[in-house]
Description:
Layout: H1 11-35, E1 41-43, H2 46-59, H3 68-73, H4 75-89, E2 93-95, H5 96-126
Antiparallel strand pairs: 1-2
Helix pairs in contact: 1-2, 1-5, 2-4
Amino acid sequence: MFCPDRRPMPLAKWLAVPFLFSAAALGLTGLGWLLVGATGYLPLSGPVFGAGVAVGVVSSDSVGWTAAWQRVWLRWPYLAALLVAGLLLDGVPVPVVAVVCLGMPVIFVLIAQYFLERRRTAELVEAGLQPTSRC
């Protein structure tokens, strides 16, 4: 489906992926609200949480599961619980400033992590420890 770099994602990092994605999306939404002059409260969006769960589903194939049972009994109930929580939180008003203050640092962390992983992969390929992708 996708071309991962053949290094398993740590379980703790995968557990954070849906939250980080949702926080980043809400932060960008809040920033848009501030740029157009809207203040006050931003209603949380169920579809944003659903998109975070979708990113968790897609990235779950690249996780280095520490036990065989986790692939079924941790992955699916965890993502289902996040989806239900997102649906329950849909429409809950949150201060726009709080959403931006939480979401923007997450965006910077995700961008920094992207460049770090990209550099790490290039170093592994250069050292001959990882084959180049055919993607």
